[in-house]
Write a structure and sequence with these properties.
- Helices cover about 15% and strands about 35% of the residues.
- It is mainly beta.
- The longest helix is centred in the N-terminal third of the chain and has 22 residues.
- The N terminus is likely disordered.
- It binds calcium ion (CA).
- The site of calcium ion has 9 residues, from β5 and β13.
Length: about 220
């Protein structure tokens, strides 16, 4: 599977990073002999306000999605919910498309049965509808197929328009499952905050179409 490991943030890394941060925080607390005052919920610092425009987040949890375990066969036992029309079976309503459209042929790794996927011509750009996510490590995965070039993956913070590149898949000819991609870096939010994000896929340097299918989101990864 061709991936750019420099920009992907696999779950294990995030977990260990958080464990390390927790350990360090506990150590500092022990040294100081006092528990530092926690920020009030929803208290954005000036940097975060600048990045989000001081809006675009709330403390209302995301609606519960129907939980599935679509990537269990790949050793990922996390719950995910299908992104709106992310199986491309019924329609692509809500998706913004440039040089892309639904075609016959489902992904071939058996993550979710179906008969259709989304075809992206060279240079295509597609953007998903907005989805609610929490600040605590929102992750997403999908399936893709390309014969040449690469597929750039970005997350857009809907309210602020802030865009961050979160990964790139390289052509392997056959269907591939994406790494566990994190949207956290696009979300300068405190734990307990929720906001809207979109996914953007761009075909780069390809002479053949790409296809994507079964875009899944874990809005706030549970441990
Ligand atoms: Ca499908």
């Amino acid at each position: 599977m061709g991936t750019d490991s420099k920009i992907f943030r696999p779950r294990r890394f995030a977990r260990s990073a958080r464990s390390l941060a927790t350990a360090l925080a506990l150590g500092l607390v022990a040294l100081a002999g006092a528990v530092p005052a926690a920020n009030a919920e929803g208290d954005l610092d000036p940097t975060e306000s600048a990045m989000t425009g001081g809006k675009g987040w709330s403390q209302t949890p995301c609606p519960e999605a129907i939980a599935e375990y679509p990537f269990k066969r790949f050793g990922d036992n996390a719950q995910y919910g299908l992104v709106s029309r992310g199986d491309f079976e019924s329609s692509s309503r809500g998706w913004s498309m440039q040089n892309a459209g639904i075609e016959l042929g489902n992904e071939e790794l058996g993550v979710r049965a179906g008969t259709r996927s989304l075809k992206l011509a060279p240079g295509a750009v597609v953007t998903s509808p907005a989805h609610c996510v929490g600040a605590e490590y929102p992750y997403f995965r999908f399936l893709a197929q390309g014969r040449s070039g690469s597929l750039k993956v970005e997350v857009i913070a809907t309210e602020s328009g802030y865009v961050i590149g979160v990964g790139r898949l390289y052509a392997t000819r056959s269907w591939q499952v994406s790494p566990i991609l994190s949207a956290a870096a696009a979300l300068p939010l405190h734990p307990g905050n929720y906001t809207q994000i979109q996914f953007r896929f761009t075909v780069v340097g390809a002479s053949n179409p790409w296809a994507i299918d079964n875009v899944y989101l874990d809005p706030a990864r549970r441990y």
